[in-house]
Amino acid sequence: MTPNDAELAVPPPLRAKRLRLHTQHQAVVIMRADCHVCRSEGLASRSQVLVSSNGREMQATLFQIEGDDLLAIDQIALTETAWKILSLDEDAAVTVTHAPTLESLASVRRRIHGNRLDARAIGSIVKDVAARRYTDVHLAAFLTASAALPLDEQETVDLTGAMVEVGERLRWDSPIVVDKHCIGGLPGNRTTPIVVAIVAAHGLVIPKTSSRAITSPAGTADAMETLAPVDLDIATLRRVVDAEGGCIAWGGAMHLSPADDIFVRIERELDVDTEGQLIASVLSKKIAAGSTHVVIDIPVGPTAKVRSEATARHLADRISAVASRFGLSATCILTDGSQPVGRGIGPALEALDVLAVLRGAPDSPDDLRRRSATLAGAALEIGGKVASGEGTTAALATLADGRAWKKFQAICEAQGGMRTPPKAPHVHPLIAPRAGRIVHINNRKLSRLAKLAGAPEAKSAGVYMHVTLGQEIDKGNIMLDIYAESSGELAYALEYARRSPDIIEVEISS
Amino acid sequence: MTPNDAELAVPPPLRAKRLRLHTQHQAVVIMRADCHVCRSEGLASRSQVLVSSNGREMQATLFQIEGDDLLAIDQIALTETAWKILSLDEDAAVTVTHAPTLESLASVRRRIHGNRLDARAIGSIVKDVAARRYTDVHLAAFLTASAALPLDEQETVDLTGAMVEVGERLRWDSPIVVDKHCIGGLPGNRTTPIVVAIVAAHGLVIPKTSSRAITSPAGTADAMETLAPVDLDIATLRRVVDAEGGCIAWGGAMHLSPADDIFVRIERELDVDTEGQLIASVLSKKIAAGSTHVVIDIPVGPTAKVRSEATARHLADRISAVASRFGLSATCILTDGSQPVGRGIGPALEALDVLAVLRGAPDSPDDLRRRSATLAGAALEIGGKVASGEGTTAALATLADGRAWKKFQAICEAQGGMRTPPKAPHVHPLIAPRAGRIVHINNRKLSRLAKLAGAPEAKSAGVYMHVTLGQEIDKGNIMLDIYAESSGELAYALEYARRSPDIIEVEISS
Questions:
Q1: Which of A355, A383, B79, B403 is the most buried (most CB within 10 A)?
Q2: DSSP secondary structure, B334-383, as one string
Q3: Is A5 a domain residue?
Q4: Could you list the pLDDT tens digit for every one of the 510 residues in chain A?
């Protein structure tokens, strides 16, 4: 005896309620524990569910709620990620079922047990990750497995390709498209706007998109935004590049490597660096951005991301090898990662350093100028504009004679108009506790200090350095200034500085 | 110049709001994105925060909300886990700061990179896990690392010891305390109540605590609860054991291995079995329960947890080795895991099987009777009550002459009174699609079917088997009955059965 149609209960739809709750990449839905769908589908808190509405669907984590304070029995609350992806309106009809089994998890398990994965397996994992079907547990398991048994070159190539596959791609009308990347971990290292200005001034195409800060006090997009609009749509971006040869825009809306955005958050929470993941992260974005030649800055130092020169060279070799498999030419430059570059740490403060270098101001930070010239010079060489070995000289000249500054102003105008970076109303110095020499500068703690002061949300907030490594100072000298937009944030930063005496270490000179 | 005290802003307390939101072990708090604490502490969604109230503190994941629908700007909503652990009242003052850095994560990272951990490192990890400081990402990373590089014997011993350390411990006045465990994955395998009755009838002390179902259609505690109260506090449990020598109670309130409760949920989500974790999970509970001699049932079969006899023997050896390091004597019995044991799957249906075996009913499931006798017999032997090799015979006799039934009734009375298991109002058969032989029974799918029918929440719901592996049947014969408390749940189970033809496979006899 088969049940009639009335008994084959398709769960009646629920009514969507917007909660305005932010849970980052993880989509969460909330339903009443006594909701009929929970009973019929056998759902419990932390179940993975498939949420469908109006032809769209996505996976989410379910949390159950008791009582009727928040929801009527036929309502479902969705967090912002879910609300936007499903393009919901209030009271929209939503269907919820068990999420289908994730077949690709079998591949994750295989890798956990020591088996290397082929392109098909990696591709299916990355597809599921980009579609937000992986929970934090699944993501962490995959990333941990990739660290415990490090990805080999073929797996890194396959991962890079899979990450490109699931994102958007930009294409340009030029045979040479230059790009730049910094491996990171160095506050204030805002070379990109200067590099783009120099490179574009020489007629190379450099359509640079950058990210906002995730855990640092400023991303390139944050600093640039204090100088010009960065939130460009693709049509505007193309117009700017057509007119000026280059741009410095925010890449977040381009979705060039959506799986990477998800991986990166988990990697930060784990604080585990897996070389294969790092390479795939960097290169997938560059390939998706349509670049042909990329310069990669690898700062090396005890509190930078890469701790030794040997590690850096090994990384550089691997990056070049994987890049060449995609027809991408990658040049890695090892730079000094033992202290911040420039003086400002924070969006507006870094922008001021950039302006000073471009304008050739007499007190502009020389280290920022030289590093930008080194990286721009490498770009000029691999872009075929100058002979090998002459890049840095040519870049310095482009700064000195004002061509870079002129090009930068033109780019800002094309992006929507040049702005003056804001100035913070509250400032407080950190002074040297004793006379001596600066023997150590802790980049991580400087970043934390700048963030407590309010960066990057408070654009004028951050830290302005007055000393460099190796410098001799007297007791009472100002080592740095803390800038904040509110007295409360200033107080938090000062409290942190008070209990962290080793942000800048001063050793008594013998 | 140092800031004055007024500037050293300790964040003003927030007011607690109960949400009645269930997020399982993960504590979640919700705060307004524009709340002053979020700004001053630099908190973002998914930040880990330390939540303090009235002398208690715990770690939680923060989600931020916009607008004032749910919360006033100085309110903080907490999910049930957090609410209970902090013993909050509505409007209680709550302080929120950044969670401190987890030092033990450095050990997790060391293990990810292939280094084995010592007792101190493992201990610090387990301590943090039990204190709920580990996010899903951290938990998954540790468990994955323990699978990628399997825990060796010393690490397994250290993990077991650490898990015992963070929980409660029970102590008994007897030199011999018997325990039993089933590795699992086999529906209906409800031997525990029968084993306890037999063993206690012989005068051995067997204070059995069991769990409720986590992902199965019934745990021992669920089935037993349809026969007698199981929710005993420790004082009552001791009284029962003093009076009758044994009990069959719910162990959930005893907190014998709190880290294990957390690990288990992540392991299920990953579906990765790590032998070391399994051993530590089983033995930590037994040691904490104060047991001296434990019988472990290891069902072996293609859809059970342990798939081959070789794997089972290896596991058995490792269990015994680790157990002996704690002065615990563990005897592993390999049993058939190719099909369910007994006929009922679901709390009340399994209880009926138990009653039938204890009463010696003529149609009682013979496989359940024999398996219970085997396990009880092993317990009688290691408990020194019968000679080696005579255990099963003695156990069968104890069933046949009614001593076990008498003891079971006494235990139920001591626990609060014997009950009659409920009977479900809706029942529907699954019939054989063709004549032939039963060649495969999928335990996992049977469990899912029983759960869709409502087990274990609906105590009388589940599945009742009418066939066994190898049996010859005719087309139209009833293979099993589905029991449900509501027509909706019955419909869901039938829909699942309709689209899953391979729950029970019938092969045409040649």
A1: B79
A2: EEE-SS-SSSEESHHHHHHHHHHHHHT-TTS-HHHHHHHHHHHHHHHHHT
A3: no
A4: 334 444 444 557 899 999 999 988 789 999 999 888 887 677 888 889 999 999 999 999 999 999 998 999 999 999 999 999 999 999 999 999 888 889 999 999 999 999 999 999 999 999 999 999 999 999 999 999 999 999 999 999 999 999 999 999 999 999 999 999 998 768 888 999 999 999 999 999 999 999 888 778 999 999 999 999 999 999 999 999 999 999 999 988 788 899 998 998 899 889 887 899 999 999 999 999 999 999 999 999 888 888 899 999 999 999 999 999 999 999 999 999 988 899 999 999 999 999 999 999 999 999 999 999 999 999 999 999 999 999 999 999 999 999 999 999 999 999 999 999 999 999 999 999 999 999 999 988 999 899 989 999 899 999 999 999 999 999 999 999 999 998 888 988 998 899 888 999 999 876
Q: If you measure CA to CA, which chain B residue comes closest to A266?
A: B137
Please report where in the chains the tokens 């950190």 appear, as a residue: A430
Q: Which of A2, A147, A270 lies at the smallest CB-CB distance from B137?
A: A270
Q: What is the model's pTM?
A: 0.88
Q: Does A136 touch chain B (CB under 8 A)?
A: yes
- CATH number for the domain spanning A86: value is 2.40.40.20
Are residue A405 and residue A435 in the same domain, yes or no? Answer: no
Name the catalytic one among B260, B273, B297, B401.
B273
Scored b (16 or more CB within 10 A) or e, B459-484 reads bbbbbbbbbebeeebeeeeebbbbbb
Q: Residue A407 is encoded by which pair of tokens?
A: 């090009």
Task: Please confirm, yes or no, whether A273 is among the known catalytic residues.
Answer: yes
Separation in Å, CA of B371 to nearest CA in chain A: 31
Residue to mutate among B1, B144, B262, B265, with most A CBs inside 10 A, is: B144
**B165: in domain:** no
Of A40, A70, A141, the CB nearest to B489: A40
- A135 with A204, same domain: the answer is no
Whether the CB-CB separation of A59 and A129 falls below 8 Å is answered with: no
Nearest CA in chain A to B263: A137
**A118 interface with B at CB cutoff 8 Å:** no
Q: Which residue of A has its CA nearest to B115?
A: A148
Give the tens place of pLDDT for each residue, B368-407.
999 999 999 999 999 999 999 999 999 999 999 999 999 9
* B437 and B387 in a common domain: no
How many folded domains does chain B comprise? 4
Q: Is B147 on the interface with A (CB under 8 A)?
A: yes
Q: Is B109 on the interface with A (CB under 8 A)?
A: yes
CB distance from A3 to chain B under 8 Å?
yes
Q: Residue A452 domain-assigned?
A: yes
A482, burial (CB in 10 Å: exposed 0-12, middle 13-18, buried 19+): buried
In 10 A of CB B498, how many CB atoms? Answer: 12
Kindly state whether A112 is in contact with chain B, defined as any CB-CB distance less than 8 angstroms: yes
Interface test with B, best of A22, A81, A142 (most B CBs within 10 A): A22
Q: Is residue B2 part of a domain?
A: no
The verdict on a CB contact (< 8 Å) between B138 and A140 is yes
- Residue A502's closest CA among A441, A435, A430? A441
| Cβ–Cβ below 8 Å for B148 and A113 | yes
Reported ipTM: the value is 0.87
Answer yes or no: are the C-beta atoms of B41 and B11 closer than 8 Å.
yes
The parent domain of residue B478 ranges over 426-508
Give the one of A20, A46, A491 whose C-beta lies nearest to B24's C-beta.
A46
Amino acid at A18: R
Are A112 and B30 within 8 A, CB to CB? no
CA distances from residue A219 to A209, B171, B425 in whole angstroms, order as listed: 11, 58, 64
If asked whether residues A247 and A374 sit together in one domain, one would say: yes
Q: Is A230 exposed, middle or buried (0-12, 13-18, 19+ CB in 10 A)?
A: buried
Tell me what percent of the residues of chain B surpass a pLDDT of 70.
97
Name chain A contacts of B451, Cβ cutoff 8 Å: 42
